[in-house]
């Protein structure tokens, strides 16, 4: 067998393993229709079309369809054209990028913000660059941090400690065991998106003060969603000023694309100057930056949209619980329904799509641990009562059809 044949066989084996374990991921070809989200059109493998409702999107507030956002993008597109034409250092910094960063710095009450092409890149680039700026840095990372944070910590070349998820006492033990003089940073999230649970922000900030450590928080699933201006859980809890670096996204609640950090002016300048993930990447198209800035600006004042989203999440959780479906409820806007088997999860997803026009993607390993496979619903303010009714009825029917266990409501 030639080397090329061996390569092909190895690739085939890797793909076959995913099929055998029931966790091969299939792309669903959908087309969102302007002004009609969360409705979309699914193009089936045979080329036919079916109207569906999207229940697993990260456009949490429907801002990807909001007239304010679309108008800003159209105006910038007509004024500047399609792309930025370069990296931020070489012709790719426009007035639209600067306006967006100013909006984000104001949002988080920080001196500055730095925009990246995604929150993944923002996490990876920042966390992998910090040890260059702070020699001997030890990063303490929550065990359930996002893959982008894990990757940034893994390849930064510095020391790392992994503390048990949301376990402040375990974090304390690690901090106490290290050299008091060593520079330290604690990296964690405000909302962990698979279970929808909250990080203990205040307790971690207290430890950071006690052990003279920097704090780095990922608010990706919270920006736009929580706090009086949509700055996240830290704003809601009055803790934003105690956090040194805040990471957020423009691709979820803000409905556009991109990621960022907000921090001191010197920290943003240092990351801008040293992070390869920033230096060598073409900047966001001006139209995207304009749309993101408009979305951030709008959500600083649109509390009604946040309230409606939270109401719909509470209604869905209450109704699913009443039917005995095993949901995880930590009080956030995310509604995970536990299945616990990759094959069953995929079957439920397929039946919801084909039989009921409900699109929810199965979530399996490595996104979640084996045995905790789930359907993850993200109700939005633009899901109607009829849509909620249809989803609840469909889940009730399929849970019975597939003979899955139900839970009794605790008193």
UniProtKB/TrEMBL annotation:
Record-level GO BP terms: protoporphyrinogen IX biosynthetic process
EC number in record: 2.3.1.37
Gene Ontology MF annotations: 5-aminolevulinate synthase activity; pyridoxal phosphate binding
Signal peptide residue numbers: none
Keywords carried by this UniProt record: Acyltransferase, Heme biosynthesis, Pyridoxal phosphate, Transferase
UniProt cofactor(s): pyridoxal 5'-phosphate
Catalysed reactions, as listed in the record: succinyl-CoA + glycine + H(+) = 5-aminolevulinate + CO2 + CoA
Domain of life: Bacteria
Keyword Acyltransferase: yes
Annotated pathway: Porphyrin-containing compound metabolism; protoporphyrin-IX biosynthesis; 5-aminolevulinate from glycine: step 1/1
SUPFAM superfamilies xref list: PLP-dependent transferases (SSF53383)
Domain Aminotransferase class I/classII large: 51-394
Family membership: Belongs to the class-II pyridoxal-phosphate-dependent aminotransferase family.
Assembly with partners or alone: Homodimer.
Protein name from the UniProt record: 5-aminolevulinate synthase
Naturally occurring in which organism (per UniProt): Aliiruegeria lutimaris
Lineage, broadest ranks: Bacteria, Pseudomonadati, Pseudomonadota, Alphaproteobacteria, Rhodobacterales
